From TrEMBL:
Residues 7-122, 150-269 form the VOC domain. Its cofactor is Fe(2+). This is Metapyrocatechase. Its EC number is 1.13.11.2. The lineage of its organism: Bacteria, Pseudomonadati, Pseudomonadota, Gammaproteobacteria, Oceanospirillales. It comes from the Bacteria.
Length: 307
């Protein structure tokens, strides 16, 4: 049952060198720098996103993800879900408006996988970059690099997937769109959606809590993914795998690393999900084909490199 969570709202990523990171996310990925704050954080967005920012970069000594935020329909929804999170047993932290620039208050909680998430309802809306909302053109001139359209999802590694599914499904209103199951019935991968998308957040079972696998950004066409691959080579960017297709979600994809070692994905296509769809199930023995549909073999770096 939908609870008023709309979509992924933002992700804050730790980077080791801000200048290198901005060059990567702006010049290569094609995000637009929107602002900076007195903490030195940099705020970015994809050109189709209406909110002011969806990616926040923070310089730190260790790479990884600080938190992922989801936008809710209203402040009343945030209040209601806050109470449900407390009842579920989550530790909840109230973060005042303005802590993130031009963003309202946020309710932060830690999932059983060890990852920090936030709920919020208010953020300044700047509209689609370069085209606006009145008689808009097809796309803006002046985009750079891969021309990423939006922040789409995160894939996260940690323990306690069953309890995390209960949290996202029963409290936050997500659906289980796809899953990976072992022969003895253990769920070792779960792809969760709060929309019609293939997934808005995904989790892989891993003994160490709170690990970040990748942040993903949407492109429009397969040709855009191929162009992204060209740009990765042109810039000598560290590539992980692709271009290829997933079996899971059927998205067409390429993975690469930012200068700090955080993995990025750009992809196009993918399945859609309605609430009456049964979860798609993959056997763990078919994981190679599920992740890399063409090669049908797992890349060890894809499984083991986390931040």
């Amino acid at each position: 049952m939908k609870k008023g969570v709309m979509r992924p709202g933002h992700v804050q990523i730790r980077v080791l060198d801000m200048d290198e990171a901005v060059k990567h996310y702006v010049d290569l990925l094609g995000l637009i720098e929107m602002d900076r704050d007195d903490q030195g954080r940099v705020y970015l967005k994809g050109w189709t996103e209406v909110d002011k920012f969806s990616v926040v970069l923070r310089e730190a000594d260790e790479a990884g993800m600080d938190f992922m935020g989801f936008k809710c329909l209203s402040e009343e929804v945030v209040d209601s879900l806050r109470a449900e999170l407390v009842a579920f047993g989550c530790e909840v932290e109230d973060i005042p408006a303005g802590d993130l620039k031009d963003c309202g208050r946020r309710v932060r909680f830690v999932a059983p996988t060890g990852h920090a998430f936030e709920l919020f309802a208010t953020k300044e809306q700047t509209g689609k970059w370069g085209v606006g909302n009145h008689n808009p053109e097809a796309w803006p001139r002046g985009l750079k690099g891969m021309q990423a359209t939006r922040f789409d999802h995160c894939l996260l590694y940690g323990p306690n997937l069953d309890r995390t599914l209960e949290l996202f499904r029963d409290v936050l209103g997500f659906d289980l769109a796809e899953q990976v199951m072992t022969p003895d019935g253990k769920r070792v991968g779960q792809f969760l959606t709060v929309s019609m998308k293939a997934h808005d957040v995904a989790f892989i079972d891993h003994p160490e809590p709170g690990k970040f696998h990748h942040a993903s950004f949407f492109l429009e066409t397969w040709n855009d993914v191929l162009k992204a691959a060209d740009l990765i080579s042109m810039t000598d960017t560290s590539i992980d795998i692709g271009p290829t297709r997933h079996g899971l979600t059927h998205g067409q994809t390429i993975y690469f690393f930012d200068p700090s070692g955080n993995r990025n994905e750009v992809f196009c296509g993918g399945d859609y999900h309605y609430p009456d769809h049964e979860p798609v199930t993959w056997d763990a023995g078919e994981l190679g084909k599920a992740i890399f549909y063409h090669d049908r073999q797992l890349n060890e770096r894809f499984l083991s490199v986390l931040t």
